[in-house]
Model the fold of this input.
Amino acid sequence: VFALRLAEELKAAGANVWIDKLDIEPGQRWDIAVRDALTNCPSTLVILSQSSVDSENVLNELDFALAKRKRIIPVLFTECEVPLQLRRVQYIDFRKDHARGLIELLKALGTERPLASSGTRSNTVGDAPDALGSRSQHEKEYSRSIRTVEDYGPLLLLETGSKIYSSYSPFDQHYPFKWMRIATTPGFETQTRGPSESREKRPRAVSLHVYVLRDPIRPFEIQIGENRAIRYHKWGRGRLLRLPSLSELKAVYPLLVHPENQWLQILLAELTNDPEALEYMAWAAKRGDQVEAEIWQAIARNPSSPTSLQAEECPFCNPEFAEGRRIRQPFSQEAILIANDFPCAPFFDYLIFPREPIHTWEAAEESHIFKMNWLAHRYLQSEFDPKSKTVEGAAGIRLSSSSSARHLVISRRTRSSAEASVSHIYKKLWGMGRDAVNLADHLREICVRCESRGLDYLGSYLKALSRSKMIIWQDDNVALFVPFGQIAIHELQIMVTRPTKTFLDLTEEEVRSISRAEYIATRLYRCLNIHSFNETMLSLPFEETRAKDFRLIFSFVPREVDLGLSELDPLYVVDKQPWETVVEIDRVWPSRKLEDLQASSQA
Ligand SMILES: [Zn+2]
Done:
């Protein structure tokens, strides 16, 4: 009865609801209808009462929905024992206050519906947005330690005696995290006025707020505000560029084969991310007397292409290329170290990749990541004596990786795509220039200043992250967490728990732990449907003798955001708060068991 009432209420409020009791046609097979509905719906409500959690059918449906990686929203109707699978998922409570529960539920459902009528938003535009109900457990735990301030002063780490800004302060026991709430220039929304025959559209000012914070580890300012990070699909004002499906492609392809339309073929070869469509285009490019070489190569280098196609054009899979550049080393036969033909670092620039043909990070196993990291570590240890400080002239080491998905820049004069030339997974290892800009400079300065006041900045930051439930996985050596200063939604960071200055300070166990955390990050991204990221290591130069509490940090930044602003200013704009990333991770990986993550990332 409760379920029927709820379904009616949700339908009345405009939500698209499917409920077995109402929507199965007579004669339809019940089990098939339920499976179809579970497969096709974006989210599943599970009504929790003692009788539902005791029901075999309900638990089966729940498992099915979890296996399909559907969003589950538990609705607590009466007191009962919450099933294990749902323990970590935020539930909506209908036990005491039905009306309030309904509002929360509609809000939760509304977050995935593209259209919100602008009228209901007027004064909330730009406010810190809600995802799964503002009263979620995560937000509570998180905001317990945050102070909202009105000007930059409190973000300045005054106690350090220098002009350093950070939204994390180890000096404040109660509110170590701070952000600033600013009423910014107003936004405008179009309002339709007047009688229906002469409707007039005029803009109406709406107040906007943003939250500003200073990344605790980098010199970046981050603004959180939905209106600043506006995306088309959210507002229904326009459609995102959509790539053709295989059948649409087949219909237009005969036209594109005409030489005058070759530019369109190349564009599609670069951009299409549907493997079947790419395979079809490759077949079309090879048909006829000669292969359309340029188009063929573009298809084969596209990271979404089937592996067999990629391997044909992949330089790392080409023995001649790889062997010719290979650096002989006794440490690993399973990972390969080569000199980078296009070095961008002044002293040394190596690429490391696994021997296996692996062309996406999503397909890499933990062992592949460890093999690359361990080879990098052993090779550098043997080549360089950090104590001599003359490591072929390099001041320190950098290590990075990026996913092979590309970001294409097309203009009249240039056509470039970042990191796109090789889709085979690899890590890049290079030498820092002396006194060159180092991403860790800011953090080093903070560490040094705090140290002189007897405080371990990163150690206490890690504890505060743990208290705020921002750490999503950890072992004895490293922690994987959602940083307070997220420069992109879904940014993840790995911090080595023990003070460590450079990559060479790590023990084998620590390299193993980092590799595992990296593996978890790539699998999580897969579950979250993120296919493009950069990973960078923040480390100190060899010669640094202060900053004794510094710890190595690896940062994963998804590239599925527009970072254009960062080229103008060290400013990042995001539309969600960091705890919302934790909520999303809880949804796809509630158990925090490695085997569950593997299973759901393969689904
Ligand atoms: Zn390859």
